Task: inverse folding
């Protein structure tokens, strides 16, 4: 099917496009982008569509942006299909405006071997609604003891390496990972947590954890490891990416490292700039996440980090769990938030608050993660695969987890009225009307 | 008068509600001092003691309180229950409710476990200690004992000594006593007193002598030996030397000071026997008062409209 999306506000940070225009999609590829009025330098590229069998979508008043790229999700397959599958997770992604997701290796078996990588990629081709790039484990079994076959897994399709869910506690092992991965030009993603300091904690350490009688995780558990990994990146010249930044101190460390020219990038997640540890009150297990929700001071620092570029990307850390697992006493429930279907709305709030321009926000959800991962996507260019999302910035909706297509109904935003949502997502040659 | 069918913590109570519990308990204390210690107030009701942690004192106290109100009591403890077969907490509690429980008295190692049940149950849920969160009936019986001995609580200087960080008894007492207008100070090593707790309006002392000076009430907490393994203090000997209650230290308190302990005591560690068994100790009276207070709690919760 050929499609014309008309009169939308097209934003593509890679080409500096930020203006109203039309996009022509032919046979799943972008045929032409026609900008009628530009805010920053006019441009018109490509040719007129040839076919007459054309679906016309009026996008007046809507945004058209490259398909969002989520560099941090848990699809749970293989091994935990009761929490999520590649099919349901990618459908949730498409519903949230994402056309590419990168899945963490903490499955069962762990994605620490090319055979598991091959399985995920094959399954994603068969059943996935969007593109899936696996992230391989740094160490075998994510145990932090022996390096996984990073080169072989990269050849099979892994685009980055992480023991996410677990830190690499052994500093020498992390050093080797940052060194060895240079040969294959893949980033090492750090789940930054000093386990001896977090020590079984279940929420942010502070007055709230004291009054709830819940074991706290100090901000320093995250910061110590970020600082260690920054120093190791400096030592080795390896490619370090910091996952799910949650504290003011972490933002400071990363900003300073960048100023010193160290090759480090970082992501945060919508929950860290939208809500605080207050969400835990009443023992709400859907607000139990690792790293934990922090304080309003941290939340503001995360926004500052997004604003000044200390934080490069927004990722969801989509971590679906079964409802029965969350229906337990707080300390027994697993960590994680089902984030794919609320991420865009929560992130658009940053534009309304003036933290980011639309173009900056789109960059942090498309081009920047693509660059970090070395993916040739995150843009709208004639001749390339059409991966895009049409967004109604003003459409409001109430978060109802029962309406999530993800199997994970674990959201701390239940009942919240959010503003801004995708109305069309186009990926893998298919138009999803949302 | 009460806002909730459940007693989950002191945190959620108003000053008026706390006094209602204490005043009602005074009536029940008369009852349990009689020759015939039983009233028919809650005849036909069923109480289930759902204890996921070992407990003799609290469970027995609740059992006696329930029996003296004429309810039928079932003790449902972990080793004999289906919990070991992997049944979830919610399923266990719903089963107990289906058996006809009107009161579910729960002790659990997870903070918030009673709160989780209370949301799902029609029965009154009474927190008999959850993790490191609260132990509300202990705080009520402590307040009752202080009021009985001192005639009032407002304006008293009360010291809580020991492992504040891991003590649900300390937490409930802090909420209770500050709500009732006492001046609360916490004494112990910095590793066992979270610094943020100061924001609850309490004083912090790391030196025992400084902390004890001039207090009306000394509330000693049981020191858990396993804290030593986690590095909270180097040895029980050193703990005892620095924060144990000795007669010399007690002499720094007011002349008419009273000494309390929720039990079970580590004699010779947090408290010496001369004090535990001495004239200033009200430790056994705390135990007796516990029954009256727990009767008051059950009686008042039974009257809450739902």
Result:
């Amino acid at each position: 099917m050929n499609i014309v999306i008309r009169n939308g506000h097209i934003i593509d940070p890679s080409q500096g496009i930020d203006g109203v225009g039309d996009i022509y999609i032919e046979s799943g590829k972008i045929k032409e982008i026609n900008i009628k009025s530009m805010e920053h330098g006019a441009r018109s590229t490509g040719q007129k569509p040839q076919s007459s069998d054309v679906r016309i979508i009026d996008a007046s008043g809507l945004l058209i942006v490259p398909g969002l790229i989520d560099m941090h999700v848990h699809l749970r397959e293989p091994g935990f299909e009761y929490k999520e599958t590649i099919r349901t997770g990618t459908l949730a992604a498409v519903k949230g405006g994402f056309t590419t997701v990168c899945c963490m290796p903490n499955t069962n078996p762990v994605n620490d071997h090319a055979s598991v990588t091959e399985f995920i990629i094959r399954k994603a081709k068969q059943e996935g609604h969007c593109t899936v790039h696996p992230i391989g484990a740094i160490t075998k079994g994510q145990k932090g003891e022996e390096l996984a076959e990073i080169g072989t897994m990269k050849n099979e399709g892994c685009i980055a390496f992480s023991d996410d869910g677990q830190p690499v506690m052994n500093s020498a092992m992390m050093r080797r990972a940052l060194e060895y991965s240079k040969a294959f030009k893949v980033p090492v993603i750090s789940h930054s947590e000093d386990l001896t300091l977090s020590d079984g904690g279940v929420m942010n350490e502070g007055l709230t954890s004291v009054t709830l009688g819940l074991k706290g995780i100090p901000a320093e558990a995250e910061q110590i490891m970020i600082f260690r990994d920054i120093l190791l990146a400096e030592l080795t010249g390896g490619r370090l990416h910091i996952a799910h930044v949650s504290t003011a101190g972490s933002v400071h460390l990363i900003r300073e490292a960048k100023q010193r020219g160290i090759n480090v990038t970082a992501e945060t997640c919508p929950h860290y700039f939208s809500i605080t540890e207050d969400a835990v009150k009443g023992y709400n297990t859907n607000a139990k996440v690792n790293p934990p929700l922090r304080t309003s001071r941290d939340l503001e620092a995360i926004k500052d980090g997004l604003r000044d570029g200390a934080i490069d990307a927004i990722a969801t850390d989509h971590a679906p769990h079964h409802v029965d697992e969350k229906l337990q006493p707080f300390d027994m429930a697993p960590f994680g938030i089902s984030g794919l279907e609320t991420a865009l709305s929560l992130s658009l709030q940053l534009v309304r608050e003036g933290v980011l321009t639309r173009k900056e926000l789109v960059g942090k959800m498309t081009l920047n993660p693509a660059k970090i991962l070395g993916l040739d996507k995150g843009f709208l260019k004639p001749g390339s695969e059409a991966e895009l999302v049409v967004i109604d910035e003003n459409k409001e909706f109430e978060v109802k987890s029962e309406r999530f297509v993800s199997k994970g109904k674990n959201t701390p935003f239940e009942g919240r009225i959010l503003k801004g949502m995708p109305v069309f997502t186009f990926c893998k040659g298919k138009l999803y009307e949302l | 008068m009460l806002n909730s069918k459940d007693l989950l913590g002191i945190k959620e109570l108003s000053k008026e509600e706390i006094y209602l519990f204490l005043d009602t308990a005074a009536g029940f204390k008369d009852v349990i001092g009689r020759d015939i210690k039983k009233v028919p107030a809650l005849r036909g009701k069923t109480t289930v003691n759902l204890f996921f942690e070992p407990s003799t004192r609290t469970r027995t106290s609740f059992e006696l309180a329930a029996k003296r109100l004429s309810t039928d009591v079932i003790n449902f403890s972990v080793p004999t229950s289906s919990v070991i077969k992997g049944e979830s907490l919610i399923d266990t509690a719903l089963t107990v409710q289906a058996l006809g429980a009107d009161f579910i008295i729960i002790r659990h190692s997870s903070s918030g476990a009673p709160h989780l049940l209370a949301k799902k149950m029609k029965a009154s849920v009474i927190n008999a200690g959850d993790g490191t969160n609260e132990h509300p009936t202990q705080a009520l019986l402590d307040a009752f004992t202080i009021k009985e001995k001192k005639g009032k609580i407002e304006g008293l200087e009360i010291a809580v000594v020991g492992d504040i960080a891991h003590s649900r008894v300390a937490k409930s007492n802090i909420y209770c006593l500050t709500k009732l207008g006492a001046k609360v100070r916490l004494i112990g090593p910095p590793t066992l007193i979270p610094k943020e707790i100061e924001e609850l309006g309490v004083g912090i002392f790391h030196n025992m002598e400084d902390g004890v000076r001039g207090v009306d009430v000394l509330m000693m907490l049981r020191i858990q030996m396993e804290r030593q393994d986690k590095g909270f203090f180097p040895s029980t000997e050193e703990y005892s030397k620095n924060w144990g209650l000795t007669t010399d230290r007690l002499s720094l308190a007011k002349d008419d000071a009273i000494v309390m302990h929720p039990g079970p005591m580590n004699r010779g560690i947090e408290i010496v026997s001369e004090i535990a068994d001495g004239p200033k100790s009200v430790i056994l009276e705390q135990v007796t008062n516990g029954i009256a207070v727990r009767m008051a709690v059950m009686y008042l919760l039974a009257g809450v409209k739902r």
